[in-house]
Automatic annotation (TrEMBL):
<dbReference type="InterPro" id="IPR019591">
    <property type="entry name" value="Mrp/NBP35_ATP-bd"/>
</dbReference>
<keyword id="KW-0547">Nucleotide-binding</keyword>
<keyword id="KW-0067">ATP-binding</keyword>
<keyword id="KW-0408">Iron</keyword>
<dbReference type="Pfam" id="PF10609">
    <property type="entry name" value="ParA"/>
</dbReference>
<dbReference type="InterPro" id="IPR033756">
    <property type="entry name" value="YlxH/NBP35"/>
</dbReference>
<dbReference type="GO" id="GO:0140663">
    <property type="term" value="F:ATP-dependent FeS chaperone activity"/>
</dbReference>
<comment type="similarity">
    <text>Belongs to the Mrp/NBP35 ATP-binding proteins family.</text>
</comment>
<dbReference type="GO" id="GO:0046872">
    <property type="term" value="F:metal ion binding"/>
</dbReference>
<dbReference type="GO" id="GO:0016226">
    <property type="term" value="P:iron-sulfur cluster assembly"/>
</dbReference>
<keyword id="KW-0479">Metal-binding</keyword>
<keyword id="KW-0411">Iron-sulfur</keyword>
<dbReference type="GO" id="GO:0051539">
    <property type="term" value="F:4 iron, 4 sulfur cluster binding"/>
</dbReference>
<dbReference type="GO" id="GO:0005524">
    <property type="term" value="F:ATP binding"/>
</dbReference>
<dbReference type="InterPro" id="IPR027417">
    <property type="entry name" value="P-loop_NTPase"/>
</dbReference>
<dbReference type="GO" id="GO:0005739">
    <property type="term" value="C:mitochondrion"/>
</dbReference>
<dbReference type="GO" id="GO:0032981">
    <property type="term" value="P:mitochondrial respiratory chain complex I assembly"/>
</dbReference>
Amino acid sequence: MKRGLPEKRPITNVGKVVAVSSAKGGVGKSTVAVNLALAAARQGITTGILDTDIYGPSIPTLLNLEGMEPDLDPNNRLLPLTAYGVKAMSMGFLVPQDSPVAWRGLMVQKAMNQLLFEVSWPKLDLLILDMPPGTGDVQLTITQSIELAGAVIVSTPQDLALRDAVRGVDLLNKVGVPILGMLQNMSTFTCTNCGHHHDIFGLDGVRKKCDQLSIKLLGDIPLHPQICHDADAGKPTVVSAPDGPQAQAFHALMRAVAETISIP
Ligand SMILES: Nc1ncnc2c1ncn2[C@@H]1O[C@H](COP(=O)(O)OP(=O)(O)O)[C@@H](O)[C@H]1O
Ligand SMILES: [Mg+2]
């Protein structure tokens, strides 16, 4: 048996792969990943989303695909599901909902291998990976198994979140994954009653961190109840309110990403 690191392999039919990442949970990775994928599809980029959060998959809920099961192609490869013009695959389609996944080590690697290499994607320009939090098994398996065009780091402007974001950046730097930039999420909240701006998690922590680390700031998504509500309803903001300022912020983010990795 060959020892050492696994060799990186291409994912059949998939062009560029971009990870939406942060070592911290709850900062909006899944919400950003799904809206980014939907924005890309609306900008004419053929896009898929792969939910790599095997412990807490969110994509089935976010795309209103809960309870759906993927079919197999003649070669026993998983056929992705489709929602709002985006192809999607998630461990959430393969294990019963609400039952916790208690895997580690080799089982994680096996599950990740299945998700990375045994999905029958149609020809895609872009595959977005919704990453789990942390800097552990899953992150290492992914970064060592496939070639990533880069990672978008999501963080709130809060110090605590930024510290974890930086830990994630360090790991990606170590394993040679290009950092495309950082996205500040859940920054300013504008009160729907009085119109006042409130900086719940701080104002420009991510911008400052970007300056400090010489990382590009890719965008800023305000804290808005609609984003949260649309996520729970399984119809993300880019689809549910396509002309609103929130959807436009995700479109601007996607344009910034496309520019960085030169997608058509
Ligand atoms: N910009 C935003 N405005 C309002 N709520 C948001 C925003 N971004 C994310 N959320 C909400 O924050 C929570 C955590 O987001 P999620 O995408 O699941 O984070 P992660 O994948 O990093 O754990 C969810 O309830 C989501 O709807
Ligand atoms: Mg998530």
